[in-house]
Amino acid sequence: MADFDGVVSLHLLPEAVEKFHEVLAEALPEVRETAERVFRNASPMGESGTMPATRTAEPSPADSTGVEEDRAKPVVPYIAMWSEEAVREPQLVERRGGAGIAYADEILGDRDSRGVLWDRATVASGRGKPQFAKIHVHRQRRAMRKLLCQVCGRPAHGDDRGVLWLLRNRTGDWRGWPEGMLVSEPPVCESCLALATRVCPALRDEGHLVAQAASCPVHGVEGFRYRAGAGRPVPVENELVSFIAPAIRWTLASKLVRQLHNCTVLEVREGAAAT
Ligand SMILES: [Zn+2]
Fold first, then answer.
1. What is the H or E stretch that residue 211 is in?
2. How many A from CA of 115 to the centre of ligand 1?
3. How far apart are the CA of 153 and the centre of ligand 1, in A?
4. Can you say whether the dihedral through the CA atoms of 68, 72, 74, 79 is positive or negative?
5. Domain boundaries of the chain, sorted by first residue
6. How many helices (H) and strands (E) does the chain have?
7. Integer Cα distance of 157 and 67 in angstroms
8. Region 212-229: what's the mean pLDDT?
């Protein structure tokens, strides 16, 4: 039984680590939401007998109204950060024997099942103001890993032609683009596709391409790469690093990256800036 227990532990450990991040990204907002409902129940009801409309638009998978365009509130992508969320910057140290970087106070959940070190961030989705230009490390990673829609957080569209991706138009980058492209923005669902192309300024200005990728394996991470220094690791630059590259041990990951293969292009739009 001792051997059996040992084997089970080894197999469950990576999943437990992934689960830890999901709990961080998902359970805490739900707990908060439940607490808010309790407080609202203690307040006077609105005239119609419904709850006062004080709830912010939080595009979580549990929120079925997340993708509906609300005149009073902007559509906040599931992966966007909120002003009350922050990336923490704990002290980085060098692992013994030049084996890469580590946190000085590292805990189990700081690394994924491949042993890659990830940014730490607080979780407070829906609190404060949306930070559209910033991506939350846990939600990006969860959406990319599970192929969830980056806008609403529910499963992205997928059929026999593959998973649906909405990309900025870079058709001039190389012949056959986006075949082989490395992407850090998660896929989309059909409901959110039209909405995103209409409301996203970058997609309007630069144009967009809609494609389905029959194959989109996990490739690596985007993150800050470090090198050994005197006393502590020295930052080099932000880059995409493959899971099989030696540099992965020196990279502090902030986004999970997939690679698109066997793409079927459904739509190409020139941007307003190009016309
Ligand atoms: Zn969606």
1. strand 207-215
2. 30
3. 6
4. negative
5. 2-274
6. 5, 15
7. 14
8. 97
What separation, in Å, do the N-terminal and C-terminal C-alpha atoms of the chain show?
Answer: 70
> What confidence tier does 75 reach under pLDDT thresholds 50, 70, 90?
confident
pLDDT at 51: 29
Q: Please, how many CA atoms are within 13 Å of residue 60, restricted to the half-sphere of its CB?
A: 22
Assess contact for 83 and 131: CB atoms under 8 A.
Answer: yes
Could you tell me the distance, in angstroms and rounded to a whole number, from the CA of residue 232 to the centre of ligand 1?
Answer: 42
CB 257 within 8 A of CB 221: yes
Whether 165 and 267 have beta carbons less than 8 Å apart is answered as no
Distance from the CA of 146 to the center of ligand 1, in angstroms? 13
Q: How far is the CA of 158 from the centre of ligand 1 (A)?
A: 12
CA of 157 to the centre of ligand 1 (A): 8
Report whether 115 contacts 81 (CB < 8 A). no
